[in-house]
Amino acid sequence: MNTIIEFKNVNKEYKSGDHILKAMDNVNFTIDEGEFVVILGPSGAGKSTLLNLLGGLDTVTSGEIVVKGNHVENFSDDELTSYRAKNVGFIFQFYNLIPNLTALENIELMKDIVDVNIDGLSVLDSVGLKNHADQFPSQLSGGEQQRVSIARAVAKQPTMLLCDEPTGALDSKTGVLILNLLQDMSNNKGTTVIIVTHNAILAEAADKVIRIKNGQIESIIINENPRKVTDLEW
Amino acid sequence: MLRDIKVNKTQFIAIFMMAFLGIFAYTGICSEYYGLEQTSDAFYNETNLADGWISGTNFDSVDVGEVNNFTTQSERQFVIKSVGDFDGEPDITLHFVENGTISKFYVTEGSPVDINDDSGVWIDKRFADARNLTVGDNITFEFEGKTITKTIRGFGYSPEYVYESSPASFAPDFNNLGFAYLSYKAYPDNIEYNTLLVKYSISDVDFKNRLNDSIDYLSVTIKEDQFSVAQFAQEMVQHKMMGDIFPVLFILITFLTLLTTMTRIVTHQRTQIGILKAVGFNDKTIVLHYILYGFLPVLLGSILGLITGPMIIPQMFYPTMKTHYTLPEWNPGFDMSFIYVAGLLVISSVVVTYLTCRNISKENPANTMRPKAPKLSSTNFIERSKLWRHLSFNLRWNWRDAKRNKFRAFMAIVGVMGCVALLIAAFGMNDSMNDLKSWEYDDINHFESKLSIANNASALELYYIANYTNGSFIMQMPIEIKANDVEDTVSILVSNNTDLISYTDENKNPIEIKEGKVSISVKLAEKFNLTIGDEIRWHIVGSDEWVTSKIGQMHAEPISQGLIMSPDTLEDQGLNFTPTNIVTAEKFGERCDSIKSVTPLWKMEDSWSQMTSAVMMMVYVVTIVAGLLAFIVLYNLGILSFTEMEREVATLKVLGFKTSFLRRLLLTQNLIFTAIGFILGIPLGFYFMTLMMDAAGDSLYYIPTLTWGNILLSAIITFSLSIFVNLMFSDRISQLDMVEALKDVE
Ligand SMILES: Nc1ncnc2c1ncn2[C@@H]1O[C@H](COP(=O)(O)OP(=O)(O)O)[C@@H](O)[C@H]1O
Ligand SMILES: [Mg+2]
Question: How far apart are CA B335 and CA B342, in angstroms?
């Protein structure tokens, strides 16, 4: 398999007042194309930081982040913007849909930033929400909103889906539905999916499990036989 | 609390600035007008200005005794026009006073007026300054064939000469005009007093009636009709009218924007209020905290405005006022209403903060801690139409955003509307005043100079001059007119149709006044509710001969209202044509006894401009303050929408939207609100303008016009402010920390 993401000696420091906090401490790992990766770790370990650096929302203090051969750490603001537009699909705990737009419009919105032909309705259909196309986010349940947000992220056919605790605000039944959807994206469409969670059970479904603690990599495990999300014991 | 203020620094500054500007403009403009009123009143009181002036031929002690029966105080003066022995033969009015207790000379330099001094004179300070006189100089006057020389004892002011004017121009020429006070002992002969100054406590009507029943006299003038008092009072009315309208508008806009902003700010703090509650603060503490929040900046802004407004704005008006009017002091005025208005602003801001805050703190903390869920939106027919699908994301997004935040949209639109209305009104006034000027001095009057005929002119010489200059005789006099139970003092112009003066209709088109017809000005006809065919009664001021005329025609005149007719028509009414002026297209520089003065048209135009300088100053003040207010309203709107949309903007940024796109998104919204407010502001501004122009003067007739130039200028100001404000926010968009903005509410 092709390696498409590589972290080399990545450090991220936050200065608050006179003391420095190392949120990423010499982090190294690689991720292959189409992998379903789960990042585990306690709260404050640096999971979100890792995802934000990879997604181009934040910049490293030192080290290299190579995505499809490009050095993200050297990108200018404008380059980061188009990098995000083309390569990254973000999914957040609180969905972050645009409240002014209907479900369908939230997806078709992406037409303005990428040159991909987006058929909003069929994307919505793929997450099972065809009938909710004209509803506003506030009229949808949390699970439905998260599915719209996944639909929005995949509509532009990004290189990777970065999901920061995507089920954190959902009940477990709905959560499984969402995670299943994400696993399908990886298995069937070949999209690289990286999920941050603190629910260790999901590890059994992952191709690769990265555990971090205090900003450092604790372990990287490759699962030869990942299980289906729906088969796990929740 | 302090930390809060630091975090929300810009909003506090905006609130502070709004309160400051509103109160600044309000108190400043009002204080200018109150200042005029208060200083002139104080001056009148201190100098014991007369309530009435009775003129006659020789008031003796018996007359005084009679008059004392219905007055509280009286004093005789001999008042005479003299010619000062200087270049240009200045007109100096001499007052020989009996004891100097009424309309006292106010000495600013030299020794006090001494009633036993038979060789001293106290001179008009403005004249003295213009002629570089010093105390101790000798000065010579000529009057009625007498020549007197006196020593200057002092300089000062008189309450009867707050406004001095030469016959031909509006603005006083202190070099050629003045007054002097002397003791009756300084009079060379046996003095025959021709003026009786009185103070009385009965009504004006009673006074006139009692006077008629008592002594023989020529004429009587009461205080409010006295030339200087009346002129100054009219000036004050003008200021007061403008001072009533503009400040009220400013304060209304301030209330509106300030209160809505307060509501928004507190609503923004709902999350924090929720946290404070969850941590265990009780409602009272929280509410108190936020009340301080609304209270402090408004209080500080109001106090600063209250102090600086009266200090700065009146000083912008007074210098030009000083060129026309003479008062010993020019101080800004004060009125309790300043405190009340500022207090009201502070109190209502606190009340609004309290109510908003209480509503939030009544909710349960868990609820409060989440951003308020956007109201359930539904799509309407526009959004389901085909067209909608073709609209850009930008427009769709802004449409929905406005729909969801109607309150913010409303506030923005109303704020812009108010400021645009003020700008349009100010520019419109400027235009209307200029329009009046060109109507009067370009369209109507085409002569080069206007010669004033002296009292004792020789008819022969006059005919010679008129002939020699190709001039035309006219008669211009004040008349008193009565119709439909209304009375007014206006002016009459008697003249043959001449190329030098073109009469005009309401559209400024030239018209002829037909032989045999009496023409009334449109404004006057409106005031008296008269139409062609109606009758009026009138007489020339200074003569008792009332005549009745039928209105045969109407004309429009921008700056002086009254009647126009030909000399023949006048004589048909049984009155004599006694010309007061010659107008000519040529320059006239010769000296002759029959001509008192020569005033070129440009000089008349100049003095008119000076007369209206207060209005123009108001235009500038209003333009500047309205511009600042517009800026604050827009800036404030910018902050509000930016903070409200921060999360959405961050999301869009994460999705990969470019900063320039987001900037355009916000700009579109600002521009749309500005455009709507602008369009609504135009008719409102037009209405303000008519209010203002009506206030500017009773005798002004104008056609309210709204020029494209003004609309364009207001548009340029408003829209560039809008764009400027937007630029201030683009930095904030590009520097927006996405991670921070999207941090989950924990
Ligand atoms: N903007 C920031 N400034 C300072 N410290 C931060 C910032 N963002 C995150 N941190 C710190 O970095 C560490 C890692 O945070 P994060 O990546 O959010 O952890 P998590 O694994 O819970 O997602 C934490 O200790 C957090 O306090
Ligand atoms: Mg996290």
Answer: 12
